[in-house]
Request: fold
Amino acid sequence: MPDQSPISSVNDFVVRFANVNGSGSASANELFARAILRHGVPVSPRNIFPSNIQGLPTWYEVRVTEDGHLGARGGVDLMVAMNPQTWDKDVAGIEPGGYLFYDSTKPLPQTKFRADITVIGVPLTAITNSTYTDPRQRQLFKNIIYLGALCALLDMDPKLIEQLIGEQYKGKEKLLSSNVHALHLGRDWALQNLKCPIGLRVRKADAVGDRIFIEGNSAAALGAVYGGATVCAWYPITPSSSLADAFTTHCKRLRHDPATGKAKYAIVQGEDELASIGIVIGAGWNGARAFTATSGPGISLMTEFIGLSYFAEIPAVIMNVQRAGPSTGMPTRTQQCDIIACAYASHGDTKHVLLFPEDPAEAFEFAAQAFDLAERLQTTIFLMLDLDIGMNHRLCRPLKWDDARQYDRGKVMTAEMLDDGRDFGRYLDVDGDGIPFRTYPGTHPTKGSFFTRGTSRDRYARYSEEGAVYADNMQRLLRKFETAQDMVPRPLQANAAKPTKYGVIYFGSTAPAMDEAIQLLEARGHALDRMRIRAFPFHSSVASFIADHDFVYVVEQNRDAQLRTLIVNENGIDPVRLVPIRHYDGTPITARFIADSIGEHQDQLKLTPLRKVKS
Amino acid sequence: MTYLAKPKFHHPGLTKNRLGYTHRDYEGKISTLCAGCGHDSITASIIEACYELSIEPHRVAKISGIGCSSKTPDYFLGNSHGFNSVHGRMPSVLTGANLANRDLIYLGVSGDGDSASIGFGQFAHSIRRGVNMTYIVENNGVYGLTKGQFSATADRGSKSKKGVTNTDNAVDLVAIALQLGASFVARSFSGDKTQLVPLIAAAIEHKGAAFIDVISPCIAFNNHAGSTKSFDYVREHNDAVNRLDVLTGREPISVDYAPGTVQVVEQHDGSKIALRKIDADYDAHDRVGALAFLQKHAAKGQIVTGLLYVDPDSEDLHSHLNTIEQPLNRLEADVLCPGSAALDKINASFR
Reply:
């Protein structure tokens, strides 16, 4: 018996699988997560993987959470330790009173274990080897066998797992039955040889509802399909490659002419990020909705073109699935670290529109909206995803589309308008909103053509290096950016139950951890109003939210408090009033981290009168 | 300067093409390049070729990078949309534009710095993909706008205006284009309009990646003794393998050289090229032979010009991608958006 009483919890615990990558564990682990969902219990899974294809350690963490906390929790209650390479670290990471599940085929010395945890040994290799002879089968079915054992240990309904296997191998009866067989091998062994269930249990609930379980990259790619993207150019880079892959898959299913089989889209894998954004800008110039998917290093390469898009006013959409930088950084770890790089990308004075989705559902909505915004504003729109949203399955509300919705193609002057005698100046601010009309190439035999260039020009697109002409254009671009403020998704505000002098600003993938942290902080007596920023340029409500509070915490996943810098810079806020809460070790931010950081600061405020802190 | 208005009046007796347009309808703004620049001759040849083909000017998209050559699209086809993009990145911008609307004619204008140095990669990959375009490099071997530094096409051993000898090997864009599968490859000389005009016309009619390397002496920085891109040097070393006429079911473009062996090549769109052989050994359908021929003659210091290779059964990027005939930029939500019913099914698949 462990010295610590074993953790006992129903529908609220964290399981972590430690595997070797390339061993086929990913699909078994995902099956585990989906099986819990089928019990009506929300899960939040996360891949923790190296930048490698085969042989290095990889982890899959499943937070089982009937309360629906979808942020990472931190800590591990049950470790499924399948990787000898990381054994010591994995065992050390288990919470006191937690559980260790391992392959007991070969005996391990007592020193390899801990006294304060429950150790569960299953001779997985022995069971597998006595049943299968083919080495690849042994490898794959071993994963299903441990899934079977977990099913017994956690008191899961095997019928639900069988059902999932049935869906997965529909039409492949042989694979189906052999997987079900492996599942029962593990389950039966556990039922006969172990005390089942353990303290951690899954109990059927009704907390999932109609929510869907989807990766942000896949949802964003669907948003591009629904938003009318016809040209996609990209260069492989983790963690964004799966976005372009998903767009390809969705298009193959949804975008072929049924009669001719012809494609209503074009996807080009560029030779690099320069070519990718060049293709996007060429297509945008010529009136097609085009996008690229990339990550930080790609953004760095694209900046010259992004400046062209800003200055020559060409629609483009860049989906940036952020990872830890700088340089190659940590390619498979998450951060929100390209805020400044994207907001001000390129040499010279530039500002760009950024959208910050919190989850796959918003990734879908904002991706589709990005194409409307790009054509309306005639500039680059960034969809700021990150690895945590992009490459993990996340439970979210179902994707929705209004069939009455038409695409906003922006201000495009047609041949008819030109024939009607409309004055066409490519950079003429006809409506006072800073947005000029454009023409598509090939519109009219004698009217409306112009020469697009990255050099300075007048309102009629004629080359000019006159100071006043240049300044006039730069001012109009600023006006256009102000216009954007009321077009982009507004911040969402939620106030504490009682009035408070403190607020918190957060964005993107921090949202689920923040929602949970608010509850933890309330339990500790700290009330906070909160605002989730969903886009840049900032809506005027951001400045008033800050003005309404003595201190506002800005929670973000980078070292330099980039969003805070942007707020200070764009709104002329006294930096003292914005307290940075920064998480940047490459793991997803947790509610515990936020609550501890803010709680600590709040406790200090309570100890010392405010004026002393200021002086 | 370009902001000076060009007089609109012209001689009432100017000849008109099939569409009723005169040469003036194919012109652009007044050139700001140096007097005598080879690039202006190429501009004139492009105007001539488009006039002869009776192309509607507004159906052409002119795309360039940065540099002297890349400024030239402003000087022809004033009723076409032009895009002076980013240094070395014309090929990607053109590729994207072409994907968006396959119905326009794409004319990519670049220079040797733009295509052989900073944009070498983009040049190569656009050729590899078989983008339907006419890609013209106005090749003078120097950076003119920054006052005469060597470019990557400058021959080893050639001298700069300042007297510096180039020790780097030259990039031969024609050889690279051949190797990467361009389906139309030619080289010409800005000073030889009779050769250049039909080459440009044939390239425009060609479906697929058509590449023309035009040696175009820089009057200001690369027209001295010791240069291998000067007017005198190119004239002395020009080794034309053939001459051609473009037959578009109309009057052939008039050319003024003596007839040799004539071979008629029919291109994908039904247009015909009459190829007059000058070098009896040269076969413009033999990609491998062309490469060997080029190397052999380059070693002797000769500049091989003419239509070096043409594949009459060429394909382009759109056929590789199997895109629909309608330009992608004209598709709207009714065609592109799968709708809410499809989304409900997608949602169900994610539960």
